[in-house]
Design brief:
- The structure is a single chain.
- The chain is mainly beta.
- It has three domains: 164 residues, Immunoglobulin-like (Sandwich), CATH 2.60.40; 105 residues, Immunoglobulin-like; 35 residues.
- The chain is built from two helices and 23 strands.
- A hairpin with a 2-residue loop joins strand 15 and strand 16.
- It is elongated, with a radius of gyration of 29 Å.
Length: 352
C-alpha cells in the first residue's frame, strides 16, 4: 500500500519532497508531532555501482529536541508523484528485491539533543541486479506504532537514495516536452518559466544547463538551470521552474519580522522594491528566453534548446510619463501660443 506524505509541512516537505528533485536552501526536516523534530539533509543521494559490488553511504541527522530520542531506521520505496518533483512513498512488497540488499548500522539508536548522528547504509548488490532502484531511508521514533496500509506516515523523516546499477543496458533519452512563461506580459520582473522534461529511458537522469535572456540579439542575463541536480525518473515527466529576477524595479515577497505575509489564497504578498543601485537593469520591451538543457546519455552530453518570447511593459511608469509629457506639451503649446498672440498684437499696433 502507498503511504503518501501528508501534513508534515516543513518536515518531509524538505527532507523528502525537496530531497527528491527540488532542493531547498535550508536543510531541515521535522515532524508535525511536537515530540519528534529531526534535522537532515534535503539533498538526495545518487549512487552508482556495478552488479555484484557493495556500495556504502551515510545518513546524517540531528535531534532538535531538548531530550534524547529513540530512532528506528527503516526502508521504503519511492516514486514520482505528479510532475513537480514531489515523491510518493510506498511500503515494500516482494517485488522490491533491494529490501534484502540494504543494511543499517545502527538500525536503532538513541539520538542525543543537538548532536549529529550517522547511520551507515550498506547495499550489497547481487550479480543479477541492474538499472535503477529508488529507496527512502526513514527515521522514525523507536516506539512508533504504525498500522500497515495507513494513509499517512506521521512522525517520520526520510532520506531518498537513487541507485544506478550499471550493466551496459542503460538507456538515457530525454526531450523537452514544453517550455513556456507564466505570462506573456509582465509589468515588472520577476518572470517565471517552466520547462517540462520527458525521460523516455530506463534510468534516472540529472539534467543541467542555463536559461539565457535576450533583448533583440544581445544577451542581457542568464540563470542556472537545475543547480542542485534534481533528477527525472524513468518513464516520467518533470517540470522545473526557473525565475529571472535581474530587473529594476522588482517585485519581492513582502516580509514582516523576517516572515512572508500570505494573502487569502495562501500566496505570499508582494511589494515593489526600488533598489536604485540596479537602475541599469530597467526592463522594457520584447524579450526572448532560450533554455539550454544538457544531459549525459552515457557516452556524451546531449544538448537541447527551446525558446519563448515575452514582454515587459511597466505601464504605470509609462502612464505617469505620458501624463507628464502631456502636461509639458500643453505648457509649451500655451507658451508658444501666447508668444504668437503677443506678436500679432504688436504687429497690428505698428500698422496703426
Amino acid at each position: 500500500m502507498k503511504r503518501r506524505v501528508w501534513g508534515i509541512a516543513a518536515t518531509l516537505a524538505v527532507a523528502v519532497s525537496i530531497g527528491l528533485l527540488a532542493p531547498s536552501p535550508r536543510a531541515a526536516a521535522a515532524s508535525s508531532d511536537p515530540g519528534f523534530n529531526i534535522l537532515t539533509s534535503p539533498l538526495p543521494m545518487k549512487l552508482t555501482t556495478q552488479p555484484g559490488k557493495t556500495v556504502t553511504t551515510e545518513v546524517r541527522f540531528k535531534n532538535l529536541n531538548n531530550t534524547p530520542q529513540g530512532i528506528k531506521v527503516g526502508l521504503l520505496r519511492f516514486g514520482a508523484a505528479g510532475e513537480d518533483g514531489q515523491p510518493d512513498l510506498f511500503d515494500l512488497t516482494p517485488k522490491d528485491a533491494f529490501a534484502s540488499w540494504v543494511h543499517f548500522e545502527p538500525a536503532e539508536l538513541i539520538a542525543q539533543p543537538n548532536v549529529w548522528n550517522t547511520v551507515k547504509v550498506t547495499i550489497n548488490v547481487p550479480k543479477d541486479a541492474g538499472l535503477g532502484y529508488y529507496m527512502a531511508v526513514t527515521l522514525s521514533p523507536a516506539n512508533l506504532q504504525t498500522q500497515k496500509g495507513a494513509a499517512s506516515l506521521r512522525g517520520t523523516a526520510a532520506q531518498l537514495i537513487l541507485l544506478n546499477v550499471e550493466t551496459g543496458k542503460e538507456q538515457r533519452n530525454v526531450n523537452i516536452a514544453s517550455f513556456k512563461t507564466s505570462r506573456g506580459l509582465y509589468e515588472y520582473l520577476p518572470a517565471t518559466f517552466t520547462v517540462k522534461l520527458r525521460n523516455n529511458g530506463n534510468i534516472f537522469v540529472s539534467p543541467s544547463g542555463d536559461l539565457f535572456l535576450y533583448k533583440g540579439k544581445k544577451q542581457i542575463g542568464d540563470v542556472n538551470f537545475n543547480p542542485a541536480g534534481g533528477a527525472v525518473l524513468p518513464k516520467s515527466n518533470r517540470v522545473y521552474t526557473i525565475t529571472w529576477d535581474q530587473g529594476f524595479p522588482l517585485y519581492k515577497n513582502k516580509l514582516v519580522d523576517g516572515k512572508t505575509i500570505p494573502d487569502k489564497h495562501a500566496v505570499p504578498k508582494q511589494q515593489l522594491s526600488w533598489d536604485f543601485s540596479k537602475a541599469n537593469n530597467f526592463r522594457f520591451g520584447r524579450y526572448t528566453a532560450k533554455i539550454l538543457v544538457v544531459y549525459d546519455n552515457g557516452s556524451y552530453d546531449v544538448p537541447m534548446e527551446a525558446t519563448v518570447n515575452f514582454w515587459v511593459l511597466p505601464w504605470k511608469i509609462m502612464l505617469v510619463l505620458l501624463v507628464l509629457l502631456l502636461i509639458i506639451g500643453l505648457g509649451i503649446f500655451s507658451f508658444v501660443r501666447g508668444l504668437i498672440n503677443r506678436g500679432r498684437g504688436h504687429g497690428r499696433g505698428y500698422r496703426r
